[in-house]
Amino acid sequence: MKPQTTIALLLFGLSNLPADSQPQPGDLFREYTWIPQMVKAENGRFLRVGGRLDYQVNEDHFPAARHRDGYIPFEQYIDLDHALKAEVVLEKVGSHEDTKNLRISLNGHPFIAVPEAAGIPRPESDYMHHTYPVTGIPLDYLNQGMDNSFKLEVDTAQRWNWPQHLIYGAVLRIYYNPDQLTETVGLEGVLPDQALGESVALSIDAPTNNIRQVDYLGLYEGVNHEGDGIYRQWHYHYFRGRLTHHIGGSYQYPFQVTWDTRWIADQSQDIQLAAWVTFNSGLIYFTRPVTGLQLERNYRVELCKPYDQPKNWVTRAGEFESKLDLKGDPGDIEAARLYWTSWSPCYSNGIYINDVKVFDKEGPCYEYMAHEVPLTNTSMLQPGTNIIKTGKEPLHDGQMVHGMEVQWPGIMMLVKYQDQ
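Below the sequence we write its predicted structure tokens.
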């Protein structure tokens, strides 16, 4: 191995980071995960918070012996030795509009408000969303060992008397003094300021007998699967406690993952790449990023971001539409794809671009889905403003059904233009 091919791991101080930050390069942390295991649902498992189906008043969902006074145990040994700070990440679906003030309590301590997403207009509760809010937790609210639990509440008032959020998981994250880390870990496969092709092979330079898993992340402008409306960020989120929509992960030496960049949008800023390295101890290290990276190819990929997103986008309520701007020449389009996050997409009744139907439906009822739909026809796309619309879900056997929720930021589009 040549020395110049390894980007050495450097340690960063944590003193200037906010209490509710996501992990940053140089951080050392552990994650303790809780996911619902005993919720009655046909197609998925999630925790209902608020209203007539609140988990706190439905003992058939959560036996009282395990969830006393609404507190849910983490059921993991939590290590606070050398801890610097703590936070909780929730996988939250804003299930019923006008559900407000989600808050969390740890171990009987005062409730803490769960922050709203930075990129969603206020009030967030007016918009369908699936986000991953991070809430800072004082360390003295936690206990060393197994005796830790949490409780979730929302305001009881809602415009049609049924407040409700759905929770797919919770991750308690404890940050530690990075001086504990003695291993040297580096990211291999890319060098600073390198031009990236369509296929980028990433791996780790580290003592492999102490590593359990490696997950690779990119900082770039891309599809906002995170639901917060922020397009440039370290892209990843959780689904039932597991990382998804990141570059990829590996559990086996040499921990190699190949990043396919063909549908990564053209960038106005540099791309950064890094890894979360999980050691056998459960400690996770966020490596120092490789910076200054750019895409090099003979075609263009444009990210079309939706705007004028309607409130309460649920297809049972009617037709809804938003807008996309196309900067390139439609005559040069080679391919295009639509991306959005939904809940209960089986109740879609078509997606239309400029009144041309481009998609019917896919996916489960009463469940989350991340969609990636190739457009078989792009002739309806026009330069400038394009209208993207969902059809109204009809009655089923004379009965109203749920409808598909289109989550914030709405229906995004990637457009690939012909080789130049």
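Residues 1-20 have pLDDT under 50 and may be disordered.
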